Amino acid sequence: MAAGVNKRNITIVLNKPKYPGNIGSVARCAANMGIRKIIVVNGQNHDLEKIRQMATHLAAGTVEKIRFVDSLEEALSGFHYIVGTTSRLGSARRATLYPREIAVELVDLSQHNGIALLFGPEDFGLTNEELKFCHCLVTIPTSEDLKSINLSHAVMILCYEIFLAGQEEKKIFTPRLATSRELEGMYGQLTDVLTRIGFINPENPDYWMMNIRRFLSRVKLYSKEVQILRGVCRQIDWYGRNKKT
After folding, report:
1. Residues 173, 113 contacting (CB under 8 angstroms)
2. What is the average pLDDT score of the chain?
3. CATH of domain 180-242
4. Radius of gyration of the chain from Cα atoms?
5. Using one digit for the tens of pLDDT, what is the confidence trace for 96-105?
6. Distance (Å, rounded) from C-alpha 214 to C-alpha 186?
7. pTM, whole model, 2 decimals?
8. What are the angstrom distances between the C-alpha of 17 and each of 44, 56, 71, 118, 123?
9. Which of 123, 106, 116 lies closest to 22 in space, CA to CA?
10. Which end of the chain is more exposed for a tag (fewer CB within 10 A), N or C?
11. What is the pLDDT of residues 6-63, one digit of tens each?
12. What is the reported pLDDT for 1?
């Protein structure tokens, strides 16, 4: 039996936050819900004093452990499951879940997998290019009169739902999912092979790969399954190079 969510395997990832005060507020909100890991990607202002002021002394330990990195790919490379947050919906984006829906899934996944909760900058959020790293998308429903949510409020809502969903004990066994680094290696290999055999247009391979990414992101690929798919790609590549014409 496993009691609740494994918060040690959950990390808040802030992509290009604009204001140090918001980073501090996020640190306090996350700490309120028992989540202590935060990664900041290419933040415009790393003023630690302003971050500490908004976090208050109650979340000082969380602030001191914040990891600052230069790129989103670097930040996400070691995670097995990535949840992207978005307020913009439409045909260009995948179907989204509400925080309460994804929280139930994350309880089990958190036992053996590193999970990133990804939030975009305060003004524009995450781009389609950045959302390609995500296994699923989450949106927070709001009133039509005012849709915008403060960054720290969005973090608190998602962390609260995970905290609440993790209160019940459950029988779990979840094998290790593939990391973002493993998945990106697989997608790169797929892009190369599918381009050379003429399955996707070489003029804009990323555009044609987006549907494949969306399909595979719904499957929750395990590390071993990624290795199998990469083996299939290698065999196709070998066959294509050695086939007699």
Report:
1. no
2. 87
3. 1.10.8.590
4. 19
5. 899 999 999 9
6. 14
7. 0.73
8. 7, 19, 13, 11, 9
9. 123
10. C
11. 999 999 999 999 999 999 999 999 999 999 999 999 866 788 999 999 999 989 999 9
12. 35
Give the position of tokens 């028992």: 34
- Domain ranges in the chain are 2-170, 180-242
Averaged pLDDT for residues 113-120: 96
Q: What are phi and psi of 97, to 5 degrees?
A: -110, 160
| Whether pLDDT at 171 is above 70 | no
Predicted pLDDT at 2: 45
